[in-house]
Amino acid sequence: MNGTWEALRAVSETGFVLQELIEYLDTHPADAQALSAYRQARDAYEAAKDYYVANYGPLCAENVPDGEMWDWVAQPWPWETEV
Amino acid sequence: MWSYERRLQFPVKIRSTDARAAKIIISQLGGPDGELAASMRYLNQRYAMPYRNVSGMLTDIGTEELAHMEMISAIIHQLTRDLSMEEIKEQGFADYFVDHTLGIYPVSASGVPFSATYFQSKGDPITDLTEDMAAEQKARTTYDNILRLVDDPDILEPIRFLREREIVHFQRFGEALRTVQENLDSRNFYAFNPAFDTGRLEN
Fold first, then answer.
1. CA–CA distance, A61 with B70 (Å, rounded to integer)
2. CB-based contacts of B16: which residues, under 8 Å, 6+ apart?
3. Cβ contacts of residue B96 below 8 Å, gap of 6+?
4. B141: closest CA of chain A, how far (Å)
5. Which end of chain B is more exposed for a tag (fewer CB within 10 A), N or C?
6. What value does the mean pLDDT take over residues A45-52?
7. How many other C-beta atoms are found inside a 10 Å radius of the C-beta of residue A34?
8. Which range has the worst mean pLDDT, A29-38, A59-68, B50-59, B186-195?
9. How far is B134 from chain A (nearest CA, A)?
10. What gap in Å lies between CA B9 and CA B164, rounded to an integer?
11. How far, in Å, CA of B122 to CA of B45, rounded?
12. With left for phi above 0 and alpha for psi between -120 and 50, is residue B2 left, alpha or beta?
């Protein structure tokens, strides 16, 4: 379970950097430094998502792995935590 | 079009239930300065915004607000799950419970259901962006007040994150308002609605 948490944390962290850059670029579309940071953040986010999906399960209903069962509804939702 | 990603924008992992805290924090779901109002405000204002970078920003921030709504709902859910009848009565949760049991319903802290009157979409970029800046400050004040009322670190962390987002979005809306003002027709001295009156000035 700890690995899941770490991998999800990496998705959240890279996703947050990307979100922040997207909103900044909306009002600063010609900022070369921000554009380059955007490209790096996007690649880091894609890599973190790919790692999570390959090891722990789908993040989107579009990337449910092939199998006998519909994995999308088999795992906990983000608001559920094991206590 | 939207797609859903199965994660919260910032993690919410609350170990102890607390119905009193839930009743305060629910204002940021269904209250006058909450995340539902924020998202609906920005996503509805996009269409009359004549500057493409500003309507893009309203789309991106309006979408982020949906993720904030999900975080607030996760906090309320985790603060109230598995409450006993004794806890519901002792922690002042009976009035919410009678209508919604432990379901999530958008109300303010005083129990008033969500209303579209909490936001405007005026069809005037200057008016709308000025409202957006005020809305971010009002939400920030609400988070400040929540931080004064709650002391569980599991709750404080995601609330502090949300508070910081209000400050960043206030900054973005300020930049957007400046863009709009810089692009006003030089004959539009009194800043009449640049989304509606511009064409009329040329006649």
1. 18
2. B152, B154
3. B23, B26, B107, B111
4. 22
5. N
6. 97
7. 16
8. B186-195
9. 18
10. 13
11. 8
12. beta
Among all residues of chain A, which has the CA nearest to that of B64? A19
- Rg, Å, chain A Cα set: 16
Question: How buried is B47 (Cβ within 10 angstroms: 0-12 exposed, 13-18 middle, 19+ buried)?
Answer: exposed
Tell me the β-bridge partners of B113: B107
Q: pLDDT (tens digit, 9 = 90+) per residue, A2-41?
A: 788 899 999 999 999 999 999 999 999 999 999 999 999 9
Report whether pLDDT(B14) > 90.
yes
Chain B contact probe: residue of A27, A64, A80 with most B CBs at under 10 A: A27
Structure tokens that stand for B190 in this block = 């009194």
In eight-state DSSP terms, residue B152 is: -
Q: Give the span between the Cα atoms of B110 and B96, in whole angstroms.
A: 10
Beta-bridge mates of residue B107 = B113
Tokens of B185: 């027709």
Q: What does each C-alpha distance from B62 to A64, A67, A74, B145, B167 come to in angstroms?
A: 27, 36, 30, 23, 15
- The residue assigned the tokens 């004959």 is B187
ipTM: 0.94
Neighbour count for residue B148 (Cβ, 10 Å): 8
Mean pLDDT, range B42-64, rounded to an integer: 97
Whole-number pLDDT of residue B167: 98
Q: Under DSSP, is residue A6 helix (H, G, I), strand (E, B) or coil?
A: helix
The answer to whether A58 touches A64, Cβ cutoff 8 Å, is yes
Cross-chain Cβ contact A79/B57 below 8 Å: no
Distance from CA of A31 to the nearest CA of B (A): 14
Listed residue (A48, A41, A37) closest to A10, CA to CA: A48
